[in-house]
TrEMBL record:
It comes from Paenibacillus naphthalenovorans. PANTHER family: SIALIC ACID TRAP TRANSPORTER PERMEASE PROTEIN SIAT-RELATED. GO terms for molecular function: transmembrane transporter activity. This is Membrane protein. Pfam families: DctM. It is found in: Cell inner membrane. It is a multi-pass membrane protein. InterPro entries: DctM (IPR010656), TRAP_DctM (IPR004681). Keywords: Cell inner membrane, Cell membrane, Membrane, Transmembrane, Transmembrane helix. The keyword Repressor does not apply. GO terms for cellular component: plasma membrane.
Amino acid sequence: MIISAILFIVFLALGFPIYISLLTTGIYILVFEMNMDMSSIVLVLFDSVFKFTLAAVPFFLLAGALMETSSMAKRMVNWLFYLVSRYRGGAPLTGVLASEFFATISGSSAASTATVGKILYPEISKASGESFALGLLTSCGALAVVMPPSITMILYGATASISTGALFLTGIVPALLIGGLISFYIIWRSNKVETAERFSFKEFMLRTKNAFWILILPAVILGGIYGGLFTPTEAASVAAVYATVVAIFIYREMGLRTFFGAIKDAMMLNTQIFIIIASSTVFSQALTFAQVPQKLTALTSDLSPVVFILIINLFLLLVGMFFDPTSAVLVITPLLVPICNALGIDLIQMGLIMTVNLAIGMFTPPFGLNLFVSQGVFKKSMAEVVASLKPFWVWYLLSLAIISYIPQLYMWLPDLMK
């Protein structure tokens, strides 16, 4: 195991893609240390992606891509902006609300940062300054990791063999908690109303009409799941078909070239995710054959759940700085499941803890993906992006502490649905 650990670290240090590092190390352990046949590893690669639950990922990505390339996202943001812009902190509050809303459709943090950022960055910069706008939009994009339908939750549910629907339910309150704390901070630091425009019911109804079909999409997705009409995977396909119909036939603003361009973007991202899923599964199986989960369970058996949660939070925050959520979930979850079972920690609670930690990692240097998205979208240096994020790390970490140690805040929802 020492040689395999060194091999993994060397691959990462040399800048190889994470999936190559995971796959190469996993093959080394299974073939050279466990004497497994290569044909068995090939079967593991294919079996890892042939899961019904994972079929939700490409459909949710497609729904997000269609929102991004059409006017659907802009219509939604314009509607929200008209509602809250006349209040204290209205423009940045719109950024929080729009990020939460977009997250209920896409589940992609990078897409949320880019889509909402392109629309609202000028308005928030004018109202609260460029640095605040930069930090707010970069950090709020990570809400898509927490708010259902979260792709990270889908992967965690599939890996831990627990209900994705239950995970989605428990993710609603934590996502609203994070958004709520950031909203209170926005109101506290804002000292004026950004617009003197009076509310017009006629204008409100016009904007509602323009955004109606996109505003009801979250209700279609989540209402369909919890109303028993379809599973989360089926909900993803409904979301993709719905977004396609709205963009092409109702708003009539998307031609075939743009439509196929959105499909291409979604499939490129989907391919990256599924390559990581396959390679992470091989790596996880190698760790299982090497009895790493059993050794970790024995090592942590004397810890209390409170101490273990503190340790795992620190560990996951560190992991999130270097690994994308997909890789982290697929590698770490098989190690945590037996430990959580031994310590009596609910796997759904652990899923929320992991999800929030990895959401923070999305905008934490050196390798947080949202940092690079913001660099490209807002044309800012890495130093400027990182400097703008300081206050938002505080609110995310405070939310993480609450979520970690007050599970009653969100665990009641699955029980209520039962």
